[in-house]
Design brief:
Distance between the termini: 33 Å
Number of strands: 2
Radius of gyration: 20 Å
Number of helices: 13
Order of helices and strands: HHHHHEEHHHHHHHH
Structural class: mainly alpha
């Protein structure tokens, strides 16, 4: 007994070198291609919105933690990602003060009031976008490209009026839309980087995007089996949402089985909203937020029970 061989201790029992900072750093790196694409297509104004969004997110977190006598954690980069993702979800012409309000809501109301990183039950950036869209719908749906007002491909698909951009322009991002969602190519580069670094798995993005491709092809915009699922998955915020927001650790299911159910649910809701809603052409944000609320139920039925229970 004087020379014990085994030591009993509380979990966790398996450790590695992965930290919150290292994960967030890899996500920031993965978002760089989409950031550069947004600035290239939407010019200086996009850079200004992105910078304002990141600074206001970090300032909101630091200010709240200072006022509530908590440790300031902005160096973990999670606030940077929230600010960057919120900037990706707004048009480049949005007034900068709206960007600040969106970040204050995302960081203080959605993240900090529920306990900080890992405790929020819905995605902060998407919640900030939803508030901005509900409060200032005109500013949030005024799209420009090269200084000219233009409809998004999804708006053209919804209305049935106007000329759709080529699938090449849709794929590289040379279309009107939110700053970070237009270039599927840039977002896919980020996706491959996250897979390589094992920050996320393929389950949620592939099943989410695959469900939208399948359902929009089968249901179709005008008739059964007459849809263009490939065009649908490159338009709007599907790639951005599926890769960078539906995969949020704290708001997605724990198991692979649960993640697949979650992703299919997101894809089903997105397809229904896009095709059947009255005037709203996009469905990604609300689909992910709704499925975020169902995650505890999914976990309840997909997490293996403890031995003996």
């Amino acid at each position: 007994m004087n020379n014990p061989i085994l030591t009993l201790s509380s979990s966790p029992h398996i450790r590695d070198n992965t930290t919150v900072h290292s994960i967030m750093r890899d996500v920031v790196i993965a978002l760089i291609p989409a950031t550069l694409a947004g600035i290239y297509f939407f010019k200086f104004r996009a850079a200004l919105v992105i910078l304002t969004s990141i600074i206001s997110a970090m300032a909101s977190e630091a200010l709240w933690q200072k006022l509530t006598h908590q440790k300031v954690t902005i160096k973990d980069l999670s606030a940077v990602i929230t600010g960057l993702l919120l900037a990706f979800n707004v048009p480049p012409t949005i007034p900068l003060w709206m960007v600040v309000i969106g970040n204050m809501f995302a960081i203080i109301i959605v993240k900090q009031l529920f306990g900080g990183i890992g405790q929020n039950f819905i995605n902060p950036a998407l919640a900030g976008r939803a508030v901005l869209l509900a409060s200032w719908p005109v500013a949030m749906t005024t799209w420009t490209l090269d200084g000219q007002t233009s409809a998004t491909p999804l708006a053209i698909l919804k209305s049935g009026h106007g000329n759709l951009p080529s699938i090449f322009n849709v794929f590289i991002g040379n279309v009107g839309g939110c700053i970070g969602e237009t270039s599927a190519l840039a977002l896919l580069i980020g996706f491959l980087y996250l897979l390589y670094k094992r920050v996320i798995s393929f389950h949620i993005p592939v099943f989410y995007i695959g469900t939208v491709a399948l359902l929009t092809t089968i249901i179709g915009r005008t008739s059964f089996m007459n849809g263009n699922g490939i065009y649908e998955i490159f338009t709007g915020g599907l790639m951005l949402g599926a890769i960078f927001m539906a995969t949020d650790y704290s708001t997605s299911p724990m198991t692979k089985k649960g993640q697949i159910i979650f992703a299919i649910g997101c894809g089903l809701l997105t397809s229904i909203i896009r095709i059947f809603s009255g005037a709203y052409p996009e469905g990604v944000s609300y689909s992910i937020l709704i499925m975020n609320l169902i995650v505890p139920i999914i976990d309840k039925f997909t997490i293996p029970k403890n031995l003996g229970r």
